[in-house]
Amino acid sequence: MDPLTVLCIDDRPQVLALRKAALESHNCCVKIASSGYTAMKILEETSVAVVLLEYKLEGMDAEAVAYATARWLAVGRTAGGALRKS
Fold first, then answer.
1. Boundaries of domain holding 25
2. CA 69 to chain centre
3. How many domains does the chain divide into?
4. How many C-beta atoms lie closer than 10 Å to residue 69's C-beta?
5. Residue 66's CATH number
6. 76 burial via Cβ count (<10 Å: 0-12, 13-18, 19+)
7. pLDDT digits over 33-64, tens only?
8. Is residue 81 part of a domain?
9. How far is it, in rounded angstroms, from Cα 86 to Cα 84?
């Protein structure tokens, strides 16, 4: 069985490191993003099963990230497995 891919979004490096270590100890594949913009790039290239999102992000706020993520997930996956834009 393939590992679950989790995208962690937080602007605090120490939080990302802790989440990554914890999730990898449970055999998850973890992608990390320190901003909403980086998260959108990851979603363009990678299929993810779970998104963990910090509410208070600098720059692109968490509500905008959540909305954009929901749009990506609603659109569906391409043949290559990554999400595509609408």
1. 5-75
2. 8
3. 1
4. 21
5. 3.40.50.2300
6. exposed
7. 998 889 889 988 888 888 898 887 777 777 88
8. no
9. 7
